[in-house]
Amino acid sequence: MPESILQVRNLTVHFYTYAGIVRAIEKVSFDVYKGETFALVGETGCGKSVTSRALTQLIESPGRIVEGEVLYYRDEGPVDLLKLDEEQIREIRGNEIAYIFQDPHASLDPLYTVGYQIAEAMEVHGKVKSIKEGIKKAVDILRAVLIPDSERRVKNYPHELSGGMKQRVVIGIGIANNPKILIADEPTTALDVTVQAQILDLINQLKEKYKATVILITHNLGVVAETADRVAVMYAGKIVEIGSVEQIFKNPLHPYTKGLLKAVPNPMTKIERLEAIPGTVPNLITPPSGCRFHPRCPFAMDICKQKIPELKEIEDGHFVACHLY
After folding, report:
1. CATH number of the structural domain 4-96+177-266+274-320
2. Among 26, 99, 143, 320, fewest CB within 10 Å belongs to which?
3. What pLDDT, on a 0 to 100 scale, did the predictor assign at position 266?
4. pLDDT tier for residue 276 given thresholds of 50, 70 and 90
5. For residues 154, 210, 192 and 105, what is the CA-based torsion angle, rounded to 10 degrees?
């Protein structure tokens, strides 16, 4: 069996709004193995980013982690990240578990040079003695993320860089402390297609170089097929299927996963009309009873409306939450 670096069990996050309680993620469970690229896939608003932020208690008010545990396997043994106080979690967040957020424009501070921002990430965790020493190391980090003329670029402010370069700087901040887990939250959303390919290739190279584990958050199935080892498919705040890339693409089990794959256009065939999943994403203040996908599912039965399906292992490493199985 592969060695787990992260075990998430029954993770539940609610947002307490004036309109009501938004049940953003409900009893989410999955394992992440050491050295793999684990992808969380699903349409916008399904809870992917909330899940990734909840792992290190990055849920802000009015959100609250209601229940669950996140076991992180450090060298000295497992620790539940949700039971740590703010000081303890800050030692891990940005150091052993780092993030690459989806919008580089919002991730970088316009008032400081990119070199200062990389140096600050290292100084906070005691990897360098001063910002001055950190800026010297930032030159090597910018070189590692393939930014040309890094001695000059280290003095640039974010507004002086292109979108692709800004995303590389954000990746540089993420890898500055040589993290064990790198969480990439839709790292290519704001970039054009050619730059997207470069960024994904770069994340793969850095994963190999630093022996890191990558959790990739995306809705792009092409990106998943290209970069991931295993996939968890999310729908309306719940995980509906988990498997290897081969299992998910060659033998999808859940009707939602099948619908997602059918919606991807095939450039090799002539298509009159793109396939779509009927209906709309449910309101998570009043989610459907039973299986949350049943109002849109072509195979829905009476039990689907009454009982929440459990995640069951159908074949080795392939799990699905569906009453059809």
Report:
1. 3.40.50.300
2. 143
3. 72
4. confident
5. -50
